Amino acid sequence: MSIVPAGRSDAASDPLFSPLRIGNITVRNRLMQAAHSKLYAVEGHESQQEIDYFSRRAEGGTALFIAGNRFVHPSSAIRGFVDGWRTDIVDADRRLTDAVHTRGAKIFAQLNHHGAQAVPDGPDGPRPVFSASRMLSPATGAATVEATPDDLAAFVEGWALSAENAVRGGFDGVEVHMAHGYLLHQFLSPLYNRRTDEYGGTLENRVRFPLAALAAVRDRVGDDVAVGIRMVANEFDEQGLTQSECLEIIDHLREHVRIDYINLAGGEYHQVHYVFPSAAMPAAWLRDDVAAVKRRNADIPVFGVGAAATVDDARGVIGDGVADMVALTRAQIAEPDLAVKLRSSEPVTHCIRLNQGCLARTGNGLPMGCTVNPIVGRESTRSTPQRAQRERHVAVVGGGPAGLKAAVELRRNGHRVTLFEAEEHLGGQLRLAARVPGRDSIRLLVDDLTRDAAGVDVRLGVRADAKLLAAASDRFDDVIIATGSRPAAHERSVADAASLRLSELSELPGVVTAWQAVDQPELLRGPVLIVDHDGTPYSSGIALAVAAAAGDVRLITRFDTAFPFIRGSQDRDHLHRRLFRVPGTPGALPGDGAFAIDVSATLTDFDPDAARATIRDLHSGRVRSVAARTVVLATPREQVPFETADMPASIPLTVVGDARAPRSIDAAIFDAFEAAFAFGAVSDSSAG
Question: What is the pTM of this model?
Answer without folding.
Answer: 0.94
